[in-house]
Design brief:
With about 180 residues, the chain is of the alpha+beta class. Helix content is about 20%, strand content about 30%. The model has no long low-confidence stretch (mean pLDDT about 85).
């Protein structure tokens, strides 16, 4: 059985290992701090005492703040005007557990947290790639609509840290109304 719970400081090493395993050539992703007071909620999925996934939600009151927090886009123009946004990020599942619904469980939990905090639109600036762990299917299955894409093929001087060469990566800005699902 999978349990979804808040990130503990003792989870950091395991979580960073999960994240790093999704990248090549020493690339990684900085995990945000779990800080409800500032509006960031990091959740981990745990199975039999082992952390097997992580995902975060940051809550913002305006589009400019969402724009500043995104990694793959520098515009929030495609986002709907709404009272409160929930930016979903840092979503990774251990390769050994991909396809078991863990990402969906994490996303569902973050949606519930966001709704409790007044989020009216969820946003993901996602890295769609050719791998089995691409967030494209997860987001579509949870009611997200892709509102903007751009190619990020060739975004590095060497091989792509996700799909290798030739790169097929796309940055996708996806949005879901809090009332869906």
């Amino acid at each position: 059985m999978v349990t979804v719970r808040p990130l503990r400081e003792s989870d950091r090493e395991a979580v960073l290992g999960i994240i790093s395993a999704h990248f090549a050539d020493g690339w990684s992703y900085d995990l945000p701090a779990n800080d409800a007071a500032s509006g960031t909620f990091v959740r981990v999925a745990e199975r039999d005492g082992e952390v097997v996934g992580v995902m975060a939600l940051s809550v913002y009151a305006d589009r400019a703040a969402v724009r500043d927090a995104m990694h793959l886009f520098d515009t929030a123009d495609p986002l709907p005007a709404t009272a409160r946004y929930g930016l979903v990020h840092a979503g990774y599942v251990s390769s050994a557990h991909t396809g078991e619904g863990i990402g969906g469980r994490l996303l569902d939990r973050l949606h519930a947290i966001g709704v409790d905090r007044g989020v009216t639109a969820f946003v993901a600036d996602a890295w769609f790639h050719g791998g089995d762990d691409s967030p494209k299917r997860l987001l579509a299955a949870h009611g997200y609509d892709v509102v903007h894409t751009r190619s990020i093929a060739g975004h590095t001087d060497g091989p792509c840290p996700k799909c290798g060469t030739p790169c097929v990566c796309t940055a996708a800005l996806a949005v879901r109304s809090a009332g869906e699902g």
